[in-house]
Amino acid sequence: MQVSKNLARLGGIVAALSLVFLPLASCGEAQLTGIDIFQADGNTVHKAILFIALAAAVLAIFIVQRWAQIAFGLTGLAAIAIEYLAILDDPERTIQLREGAFLAALGFLLVLVAGLLPSRLHGGKKPVK
C-alpha cells in the first residue's frame, strides 16, 4: 500500500500551491501571495523563510521516504510558526495570516502525518509474526 506516499504527495502539492498562489498575509486591504513576497524589495528574512517552506513542500512531493516526510512536515510547520510569531510581535497588529498560510500548514501536517503512519502503510514489507 502506498497510502503514506500518496498522502505526503497530496500534502506537498497543497502546501506548494498555497504558498505560491493563495494570499499568505494581509496588511489592511493589501493581500500578499508568495509571488508578491518574492517580488517585493527588502524582507529578506521573510523571503528566506518562504523559500525554505516552499522547498520543503516541493521536496515532499518527490522524496517519499519516511524520515524525509517527517523532516519536511516539521520544517514547513516550523516556517509557518516562525512567521506567525513574527506577526504576533507586530506592535500595531496590522498584519494577519491569510488562508494560504493556513492551507499550507494543513498540507505540511498531512506530510508529517504520512511520515508518522505505521510502516505497513509505507509500502514496506509486512511485519513478521
How are the elements arranged and paired?
Blueprint: H1 3-21, E1 25-27, E2 30-32, H2 34-39, H3 44-62, H4 66-88, E3 95-97, H5 99-116
Antiparallel strand pairs: 1-2, 1-3
Helix pairs in contact: 1-3, 1-5, 3-4, 4-5
Structure, briefly:
By secondary structure, the chain is mainly alpha-helical. The chain contains 5 helices and 3 strands.
* Biggest sheet, spatial arrangement of strands: 2-1-3
The outline comes out as: elongated
Global Rg: 16 Å
Biggest sheet descriptor: 3 strands, antiparallel
Number of helices: 5
Overall pLDDT metric: 88
Number of strands: 3
Describe this structure in words.
With 129 residues, this protein is mostly helical. 66% of the residues lie in helices and 7% in strands. It contains five helices and three strands, in the order H-E-E-H-H-H-E-H. The longest helix has 23 residues.
Tags for this model:
129 residues, mainly alpha, three-stranded antiparallel sheet, 3 strands, 7% strand
